[in-house]
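User: I'm curious whether this sequence folds into something compact or stays loose and floppy. Could you predict its structure so I can see for myself?
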Amino acid sequence: MGYGRSAAVLSLGIGVTGLVTYLYFSLSSHALSEADYGRITVLWSAIFVVIGVLYRPVEQLLSHSIADAQARGRPEAHQLRVAAGLQLGLGVAFAAAALAFRGPIEDDLLGGSSRLYWIFVVAVLAYAASYFARGFLAGNRRFGLYGGLVLMEAVSRCLFAVAVAVGIAEGQSVVALGMAAAPIVSLAVVPPALGRRRARRRGGVESAAAPVPSVAREAAGVNDPLTADAAAAAEPSAETAQPKETEFTLSRGTGFAAAVLVVMVCEQTIVNAGPLVVKSTEGAAGAALAGFVFNALLVARAPLQLFQAVQTSILPHLTRLRAGGEQDPFRRSVNLTLVAVAGFAAVVTLVMAAIGPALMDLFFGGEVEYARGGLVLVALGMGFYLASATLNQAALAQGRAAQAAVCWTVSAGSFVTFLLVLRPDDRVLQVEAGFLGAALLLCGLLYAVYRAELAR
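Assistant: Here's the prediction. I'll summarize afterward.
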């Protein structure tokens, strides 16, 4: 499946997923009190900060390494073992840390609720398997099943909010329980993927593996020495056509994952630090205000979830192009994605400028009005952030994970410093403006890394 078709298939599934997720928060906002809804948003932020930091690096590692191995005609069993070992170690480390710091997590972060604490623990551990499955499906270009996984996750989670909204159940614990159940239910798509993989192996077919040049010559019947020499001369040498291959080892996989882990920490910081900082610094009103900030950032968060389709498909696509030495298609793929991002961001910005406050009131209600200018700032920041995500995947495919991690660290650090040092009266506007500034800085830094590698 080509990159364009892959992105289209995933966009359909993840686009519906984004709408269902929006519905989950809309129903929760109307069914719960402001304080209870604020704790739901804090729980959500905490879960996705942790799983983004811990598990998405392994997802990216699997997607990148499987695509690279298949492009070079090599089996991917070793990549799976290395990634599984890393994921298991991260899950065990989280469980130990969560138990050791139960007091601060339960009392300070989750308002003293033991139910929310255990939902947090179970959800994070369940997502270890979910994100491993995502990396496996992306690396093998099973994007239809990938879209099905995330859609099933969103729908099953939303059903818990529906149950509370219609009166079948009640309370924030039921709404929160959907966050733990969702990743477990979504794994139902994995058995079909494994079954088809076994069927291909029994048939002796590895669908993604391309024959190496020498095998291709033999398959074409080029056996005459003179013809073979001419064919060999016509082929680009491995040194000039392809980047030099490095053996995939545990240390190399760990290094890549560690750099991506830093990226994920910074990504979650930029997306989620606003509500968390507001909650921790605004006293008794912090929980309710955090929910308001969270809703404002959903203007960026929902498109970011949709853009996972592009992120998921573009990394294995760019990795295969780089492994084959195809620089022009590599550059065209990146440019096409950036143009699409710019167009999408322009549309969202215009919508926010025209009817943004009315849409937010419709979805979330409440007594606080959403400022039009702040929503426009978030929409612009979303555009730069999506462009940054594209350039980040290009840097990973180019083998520049460490340089990308530096760019993210500088941008996220600047954002948090801006929130902590300055304390204006309008904290919501501060978060919105800070998000735009961090995204703009990040986009510029990652573009410099991307261009430097292309020139080299």
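Summary: Residues 18 and 303 are 8 Å apart (CA to CA). The radius of gyration is 23 Å.
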